[in-house]
Amino acid sequence: MNRLKKKKQNAGVEVNGNGSVTREPDCGRKQKLAEIHQALINDPVDIETLRRAAGSKGGLLTDELRRKVWPKLLNINVYDLPHKPGRDVRENHKDFNQVVLDVRRSMKRFPKGMRASERAVLQEQMIDIILEVLKHTPQLHYYQGYHDVAVTLLLVVGERMTIAMLDTLSNHHLRAEVGTIFALSWLITWYGHVLSDFKHTMRLYDFFLASHPLMPIYLAATIVLHREKEVKKTECDMAMVHHLLSRIPQDLPYELLIGQAQDLFDQYPPSLLAKRAALQPRKSLSISTFQAFQLATLHQRPDSVLKRLTKAQDSSTSRQASRYSGLEAALPQERGQLWGKGNRMVKMAVWGLSATLGAAVFAVAQTAMDWGPEALLQLF
């Protein structure tokens, strides 16, 4: 099978045709840190360098850098964040009870050793964050596992930034309308629900935030391919294969798999998979909107400039407020309009079955031709 190009260098790893791996000397931690900091202060922000850093070996290295880079990857202005949710966010919300139940059961997602009182505060913030995003975009639908994405963001970037990031992800990356499959929890939680080590979750979030919305699918295909021998040794029975694949190993070689997922993406891009899956690209928001979303991230100003512009705008607003008494009443409405700008009608859950598993089916098919089409289809 020619699923990986021979001796293709990716993310500091060289994969040979026989599957062996050669570690290439990387540029070093200090140099990578310097490149990230320089990219952040460039005007406009050097988003391509940030994407490469997030996808390369080690990802963004520290949570401090993630707090600076993640918003840039999603084109979020750190000086124009949503306000903290008010008390009314929980009133008469159709998903309130389910959100509370899921958040209360999320104890294992918090770092070991965290004080119970601190965890309780974060859980209350999670409830409000989720309800706030759903409230401002009524077309979205809550699903169990959505809170796994929310808690990962909250532990890194804080409450207000989590609202902004979760809103953007909900409208561009997280998709709907799929049946129950073995990889369902992998995809809808970006693997956060199935990984026990938080550092691995952070590494994958670096990669996904810098990549196409379908990249979690390519990683799922790569994990299946990585476990090819296990799969082939398993009895060709839907229940047996599902049992094997639904339990993701905790000792996966993540850097290698990330490189291979990028290789799969390069060789079989979403546009190709859409054609093979008989899916019209214009009907898949993940495919049709990503190019415009990606281009929009290229024109961001560095935070130092945004801070200066925000301060100047606030000063101007303050002077005008003293002259126009009616302006104060108009501001809340204006903020609501800013929040809603760019939102699209999207259902939340995961995506259509053909789009979701297109990459996985096509990739697995390359190594499982001898199983026969009926057995291969059973695998999914």
TrEMBL record:
GO process annotations (BP): endoplasmic reticulum to Golgi vesicle-mediated transport
PROSITE patterns according to UniProt: TBC_RABGAP (PS50086)
GO molecular function: GTPase activator activity
Protein name: TBC1 domain family member 20 isoform X2
Domain of life of the source: Eukaryota
Highest classification ranks of the organism: Eukaryota, Metazoa, Chordata, Craniata, Vertebrata
One Pfam family, short name: RabGAP-TBC
Position of the signal peptide: none
PANTHER family, per the entry: RAB-GAP TBC DOMAIN-CONTAINING PROTEIN, TBC1 DOMAIN FAMILY MEMBER 20/GTPASE
InterPro entries xrefs: Rab-GAP-TBC_dom, Rab-GAP_TBC_sf, TBC20/Gyp8-like
Residues covered by region (Disordered): 1-26
Entry GO terms, CC: endoplasmic reticulum membrane
Record's keyword annotation contains Acyltransferase: no
Gene3D superfamilies in alphabetical order: 1.10.8.1310
Domain Rab-GAP TBC: 60-268
Alphabetical UniProt keywords: GTPase activation, Membrane, Transmembrane, Transmembrane helix
Residues passing through the membrane, by range: 174-192, 204-225, 348-369
